[in-house]
Amino acid sequence: MVRSSVYPPFPPSSHFTPISLDHAFNADRSHLTGSLQSRSDESLDSKTTATFGAQTYRGIPFTLGERNEPNLVLLDPATGEVQVAIDPIQATYLVVLHAVEDHPAPDLFGFGQVQTLPGSGRADGNALGNLVAEYVLHYDDGSEATTPIRRRFAIQQRNISWGASAFEAVPALAPSVYSTATEDFYLNRVPSMSWGESECRHDSGRAYDKELLWLYALPNPHPAKPISGISFRPRHERAVVYGISATTLTDHPLRPGARQKLRLTLPDGVLLNALGELDIDHRTPAIGLDLGTVISARAALDYDETAWRGVAPDVQPAVSTQHVIVEYAAHLEAMLYVVTDSGGVVSTGLPGSAHATNDAIPIETITPANLPVHLRVIDRTTRQPVAVRLHLHGEHGEYLPPHGHHRKVNSYWFEDNYAEFVNDANQYSYISGECVVDLPIGRVSVEITRGYEIAPIRTVVEVTTETTTLEFELERRLPWRERGWVTADTHVHFLSPQTALLEGAAEGVNVVNLLASQWGEMFSNVGDFDGRTTLGARDFGGDGEFLVRVGTENRMHVLGHISLLGYSGAMIGPLCTGGPAESAIGDPQEVSMAEWAVRCIDQNGLVVMPHGPNPQCERAADIVLDLVHAMEMMTFNPYAAQLGAYGLADWYRYLNIGHQVPLCGGSDKMSASSLLGGVRTYAHLGEHAFTFGSWMDAVRSGNTFVTVGPLIEFAVEGKPAGQKINLSATGGSVDVTWTVESVSVPIEQVEVIVGGLVVEQQNGGGALSVSGSASVRVTDSTWIALRVRGSLRGRPGDIAAHTSAVQLLVGDRPIFRQPDAVAVLEQIEGALAYVDTIATRPEASRYRQLRASIEAAHNRLHTRMHQQGIGHLHSPVQEHHES
């Protein structure tokens, strides 16, 4: 069974002339015997009507036989030669559509019966070399030329196992390009391929689950001589010929073209789809080729070179609605077709072809990226290669990926986790410091980044035919690491540990916490957890500077999520509970986050409340119980959204009732559109050497800040975040000092926050370095932290960094603000209400235990409120009476 590779409305190539074999057909395929029989029963199966009549394969037209009459040429050694007379033609090649009978796979002596792949029977197709037939060209002058047709060279059987492709023939079924499953979802259509397979973006061509016919280009050794006939001489095996098409093309008509690009101006009225592309799906193609394949047709990206060479943290191109970059592989003489808004078709030849036009479809040649260049990025001081995030594009905005990286990075959830990042229109690859990349001759734009302490590079280089190597030097501008600070992303998913290590090093993230978890019936990174290995540590063969540790994010859809980092021993389970959306349908609510936290602490781990403020439920109880070591501010991509006001406001609430929980930052990376370390934790080690354990201790001590770029040193009366300062019963004034520096994110404002309110601010004016001090009068117990505003994309009011807090205790008065206490208590009551009413109930003793852990927090905060003389309205589920 075959399928045309060019679909209406695109016509076949005009460079081919089908030759009728009607007068030579000597068999009906429905009556074939033995291994020549079709397993799909071509005579009855309506799906195979494409193998009858006028058909096109790989852009080549054929005239095939009709149903229920002689419709192929049977070559049988028992019946002899078949001669076909042809009106004299001149041709360089005759393209033959044919197949040899299936050859059973032999048993191997001493191995028992050979097992083959499902669906292939025993016809694996690996046999080769047997002389199937001879094809003889007869010339008008009476001479002839004979070509041997050998099994698996010029001809192959229809049913093969994977890996048994022919050497000189190609399947009539050409490669088909597919959208990914998620792209099809956004285009409101049923996916062409299953999720996973669609990641390939085109079919594999292995095709062992299909019946194949084969195209062979029979060369004419004397193209100047007119051909007046062809003879098929059977030799040792039976075969079938379906059709012939003649061409005068000089280049081999079946040899695939190397991948190339062109810039195309869209005809009037032609619009891009919801993905910003022309559709290339075989069901609804908006663009196509006859002798080739359109790989992609994406909106052209136009970069402003002045902006590119400037200092803005993020430079995005203008996305064209009138031009597309077409990437394709085709014969030089292929024709390109575009469907207009009226359903018509306009066409042009490819660049370099005599048929190229600039009227219906104006096109521009894009210099091929076929010069392999060794690219190297080194540290200016050590002169050693360093891991980086890399972006390259050519003069037409076309992305230029290094070898081993995607041309089109998939930004969707759980679909592409292969050392890449996509930020709107800009695509990036993570490299270990060296790579090979195919570049075009001309100007190539380069962007290289490595975290928040090293000056990024954004430049344009000139590539010539003599270019073999490009080397770039990175310079550390901000010595925060030397000052004892280490960075971390507390929240990463789906990457392999080794890929996480590469991305962490490339982003300047010293600690990557890769978290196993559950997503309904899917489990991620579970096999990577062993409760002891810190990848990159000296104890495990690394350099000790960049570390990856697999922990867990334990989750439930109402009570909340909790990140359990760096613990040793057995995995803490269940990973998720309480049913969908986090755990599976029917899973009971069998544990509280507080119980998970206690187990993590007992196993020497770090407990983090992720992505504040949500889910806003049991996190309140766990903080009140002092089971939480840090609260995470999360953003998938800081270019899209920076530190969230709601998350910070929620954190302020806990500070306002006396819980000095440090801040940390995590990306919650789950796709290539999430930036590992885009928001990150800086923690100060003090006098300790850097290990994963000392990093956890540093977070627990509280001298941390979170940032999307600016770096902070901050103190109150000389004491850093995480400390307490005791003042007399009458209070007093304290001195606050700070230094804020950045390599790229402009510092717009520095704010001193006391009890959640701004009491002092300094205008940074977009500078990259700001220092200052303030004297703050304190009359009641409170806390102080520093907040920095600045934006990666120039948005006013964006929060770029925030320190953890210093507590100020006036006399013996606690930090306890009534409205915040009431709000926190109501959250705890909400957790109890959920457990008591609609949560899937576990067995009785388990239910009592999980409820008791939450109720303990309620009792603790409730008692404190009564001690402070604070009353409140209780939830009906939690009504109580004073004794």
The shape, in one word, is elongated
- The low-pLDDT segments are 1-8, 43-49, 877-883
Largest beta-sheet details: 17 strands, mixed
Which structural class should the secondary elements be placed in?
mainly beta
Tell me the number of structural domains: 5
Structure characterization notes:
This protein has five domains: 16-173 and 210-247, no CATH class; 260-365, no CATH class; 371-474, Carboxypeptidase-like, regulatory domain (Immunoglobulin-like, Sandwich); 485-818, Metal-dependent hydrolases (TIM Barrel, Alpha-Beta Barrel), CATH 3.20.20; 822-878, no CATH class. Helix content is 11%, strand content 34%. The protein is built from nine helices and 47 strands. The strands form nine sheets. It has a 17-stranded mixed sheet that branches. Helix 8 packs antiparallel against helix 9. The longest helix has 24 residues, at 844-867. It is elongated.
Brief write-up:
The chain is mainly beta and about 900 residues long. Helix content is about 10%, strand content about 35%. It folds into five domains: about 15-175 and about 210-245, no CATH class; about 260-365, no CATH class; about 370-475, Carboxypeptidase-like, regulatory domain (Immunoglobulin-like), CATH 2.60.40; about 485-820, Metal-dependent hydrolases (TIM Barrel); about 820-880, no CATH class.
